Amino acid sequence: MPNKRLTDGITTERLALNDYVENFSDLHAPLDNHEALIEADRCYFCYDAPCMTACPTSIDVPLFIRQISTGNNIGSAKTIFDQNILGGMCARVCPTETLCEQACVREAAEGKPVKIGQLQRYATDILMSEIAHPYTRDASTGKKVAVVGGGPSGLACAHRLAMKGHEVVIYEAKQKAGGLNEFGIAAYKSVDNFAQDEVEWLLSIGGINIKYGQKFGGGLEVSQLTNDYDAVYLSIGLNGVNALRLSGEDKQNVVDAVDFISELRQSNDLSKVPVGRRVVVIGGGMTAVDAAVQSKLLGADEVTMVYRRGKENMGASPYEQQLATSKGVRIIYNAQPNKISGNGSVETIEFTHTETINGKLQATDKNFTLVADQVFKAIGQKLELTNDMIAIDYGKIQVNENSRTSLKGVWAGGDCATGGDDLTVTAVAEGRDAAEDIHASLA
Length: 443
What we know:
By secondary structure, the protein is of the alpha/beta class. The chain folds into three domains: about 35-130, Alpha-helical ferredoxin (Fumarate Reductase Iron-sulfur Protein, Chain B, domain 2), CATH 1.10.1060; about 145-240 and about 385-440, FAD/NAD(P)-binding domain; about 240-375, FAD/NAD(P)-binding domain (3-Layer(bba) Sandwich). It has helices spanning about 15-25, 35-40, 50-55, 60-70, 75-85, 85-95, 100-105, 105-110, 115-130, 150-165, 180-185, 195-205, 220-230, 255-265, 285-295, 320-325, 425-440; strands spanning about 5, 10, 145-150, 165-170, 210, 230-235, 240, 255, 280, 300-305, 330, 335-340, 350-355, 360-370, 375, 380, 390-395, 395, 410. Helix 2 (about 35-40) packs across helix 4, helix 6 packs antiparallel against helix 9 (about 115-130) and helix 14 crosses helix 15 (about 285-295).
């Protein structure tokens, strides 16, 4: 198919249609029955289960794998969902290589851990396809709880509260629930509309109502919520993006990586998603990798990630870095941007090499320039909260060990709150545990 060049220098329709299907197919094909049994048989079923300790939601990994090995797939999935109601998505997007699989005894012994994530997906997919919902609600408590934000943490909190018999209303700013699971991860990590299917499956427990287009701070205020509900859980995520603060940052085609990923995730025709010929991604985290890899899969000729520190300091795991390079992405370490240039649209970016001396990052006198017609900013997100009723600590909502904020009757968790590590699985754990504390306070 011939290229279609737009007036701003960005192209669409670069690949044949079947190339998009192949490029954005499932990153890891699901295990079939035989493969799952073979893989489950590799587990030592350790009595001290370091894999379980490494899981933020404390899933009983040896138990669910043993249940697979004995043919009890539904029981296996129930073991997972008891701890992590979003276990299906976490099986797809969790960095298992740095969590449960890194702790696996087989990883230490032979460098080949049990495929815990894929086994988790195997079991949860079976249950979700065969059973409408494995949980029932307790008798109604007559209590109402507001959950602000329909991402992983909010959904996990809402589900656990609904199980306890409370009525829950989720206030979601967008027109779809799911948060980063729906809008913020690479399309090849979650295919076939799984994020929305999972939301619908979770909601089928009953007792949860979602109100869309309700943005916290945009007419939806904490004072109103605490007046109308018996408890409030804030899981609003990080709603702002850090700026580069560079000359030329306002050039055309210099965009936030999260916006690019969201557009791609919501597209019904990937051939229409604009991508540059020479793409530069600034940042070293998971978002940077997702933006870089997907740019390459959309047909960009050259994609370069530039990170200001060394390889060992990158937020993206070694596995994700390897994934990026295997797709043709070049990664430049120890360099920070100085200036973006171009006549209207971005044309070049000037960088300075950096070095770390006594733990502090310092610029050198060595510069270089990259040609670029599209730049993605992926240097982190931030919380933009104007409400002064809630204490903020280091840019996030301050919470105690039970996820309680400084404001009575208000809890918070997920990326917006202190204490987390910005992972889906951690957000789920925080939402689940906050629900337990909310329930105890309402009893």
